[in-house]
Write a structure and sequence with these properties.
The complex is a heterodimer of chains A (702) and B (102). Chain A is α/β, with parallel strands linked by helices and 702 residues long. Chain A is built from 32 helices and ten strands. In chain B, a hairpin with a 5-residue loop joins strand 3 and strand 4. The longest helix of chain B has 9 residues. Chain B has two helices and six strands. Classes of the chains: A alpha/beta (702), B alpha+beta (102).
Amino acid sequence: MNAPSRIALIGNPNSGKTSLFNQLTGAHQHVGNYPGVTVEKRDGVCVHKGHTLRITDLPGTYSLTASSIEEIVARDFIMGEKPDLVIDVLDASNLERNLYLAVQVIELGVPLVLALNMSDVATSRGIEFDVVRLSELLGAPIVPTVAVKGAGLEALLDAAVSVLDNERPLSRPTIGCGHEIDAARAALAAMLPSNGQAPEWTALKLLEADEQVWASIDSEEIRRAASAHIRSIEKRLGDAPENLIAEARYGFISGACREAVRSTVEARHNLSDRIDAVVMNRVVAFPLFLGLMYLVFQLTFTVAGPPMAWIEAAFGVLGNTVSGWWPEGSENALRSLLVDGIIGGVGGVLVFLPSILLLFLAIAILEDSGYMARGAFIMDRLMHKIGLHGKSFIPLLIGFGCSVPAIMATRTLDNDRDRLTTILVTPLMSCGARLPIYALIIPAFFPERLHAPMLWLIYLIGIALAVLVAKLLRSTLFKGETQPFVMELPPYRVPTVHGLLIHMWERGWLYLKKAGTVILAISILLWAVSSYPRKTRFDRDYAAEIHQLEDQGRVGEAAAVTQAQQADVMAYSVAGRVGHALEPVIKPLGFDWRIGTALIGALAAKEVFVAQLGIVYAVGEAGEASDTLRHRLRENYSPLAAFCILLFCLISAPCMATIAVTKRETNSWKWALFQLGGLTALAYVITFLVYQTGRFLGIGVA
Amino acid sequence: MKDASSTPPTVPLALVAPGRPVRLERLACGQGLQRRLAAMGLVAGVLIEVISGSPSGPIVVALNQSRIMLGRGVAHGLRVSECSSRSSPFLRDEFDTSNYQG
């Protein structure tokens, strides 16, 4: 009796579908992928009046044709998984367009409930709905909701349960497409086997020239008949059946709205238009956009400061406590592993969690408020100049958070050339994992007033390089037309705290999981390669020398000898040896073997660079960690070299996860390796030029 | 059957100044793009209005309550006609499925 019912949530982008899903399922969500593709699949559970409802949030789509991955995923889910009920979320103030999707769900013949979402906004715009009449016309219960406020959810669930229990079923409308098309549809349906998908639906899709349905038809006879019908309709009505069917759907919708919807006030210029008149103003738009980006980084840096200090202090206390378990002065491998390897490594990464959460929060605000789409608009002209699509801008912007979801987001680009170019340059958008590197290096070398401008500059360099590389790729490897730009500009909305927190937490949690698993494992590995083999026999008797110098009160010289010993020990380890082997190659960039060692770690995950530097120096300090890492860095490198470290980390090889996702998204190792090799070569050349020029001109060498 | 003689003169949407409603008459673009535009509500017969645009960048059009950004190239392919009546931007009065019944 109480087997869980499966419910699919479908709706247009910006219809408030995700808000509704969050409200219905709360924290009981599971994020995964649809089989075979990387479109995100979110599942959740909700219990209502003894019914357990398993809700799946389908990707936001405008239609159920086979023209994008999202549409195919949504359609395949409804047809393949056969959910017990589909809830279609409609944006009430945009009803006609939203009903286009609803009509296609109706065509599929699945049990349906419609959520008339954001009905408060529509009402305030003077739109009145006759919900009962509209339900009758569409043959599905309609429930007004305001998802962000949680209003109407009880009634929605009541309606869902009543449809599941099959109380008072409504009769479905049939949408006539005109005599010719209806006749052709009936003729084709009669030829189709009745055991599979509803023949009526398949026949309609054949007339719509739906590639996926066409490919599923084996019978040459049916294919021939379908093309004959399409040609004859085209000839007689002067347009492709597909367009005529679309018009007929809108005709049906128009008719239904005329009967059940009344617009009392003609709200021509709403608040969003008025905001846009300022925000998107030709003079203001671009500087404002850059300014907002600057604000985001400024915020990320300053507000995150205090909590970062707390985390750092907490890990310091933890390290000292664990250290205290062993008697003073003893050299113990386990202690070194725990304190220097695990606590030091993971701590060094966790310290940056506040920064990363704030950055994701800022991106979530931009997304949820609707400004992100304006960004795409403002950038389209520029993106067009470099041969990209305004839509490419969104994955690139997400790239500031993490390249992995950014590369996944390129799926919204239908054109392969646009998509590949975007994927290849995405790692140049400085991701959140690189922020710890900047946060470590910049304050160590530059005065406080330059912190935010330096960070901004690094991000700008990444953007400029992405532009140049994209332009280069589009004029060589990926020549050809850009995809036409069509995108909805969602109205501005005040983001809800609940939604922002969910988005921020989802991404922050990914970072934490990485810190807990991959980074922990790499920290231990890097600790091991930086500690072993252990040098115990020295050519010089360091201990005696230090002892002697200290007795004579020459503390400074004693410290120098201690450092010499540390360097000796470090150089003997595996990491030291690899770093040393790399040194001739990276020396022209201003790097020494320690940086070389850390760069190897950065290949696994960018933030490991910080952890590795920490380990390299902590191990070298052999227990007397009085100096902070920043202090040690300042002693060892010039500001010019520090800038080159920033540059190299920005441009060079993306992390393993990025390479893996590029391989998966492009379905070829060739592009993944091309990205890896190409970006590393670019990083080398640019850093080399900057360092050598800087040295020649004597900038930042002291 | 569409009657060619009643078709009013059309101009590309890209050349229309902001602030005046126009009727979308014809979509001179590929089938794939037509499908995407239809999904967003842009089919022949709807009333739209250019909200903003610059000589070279994309333009924003209003269709009922939604705002849709169109690249220059797309806007050149959409043919529109002048439309004096602002009587009902919400519904397309002219549309009637019986037009297609032979």
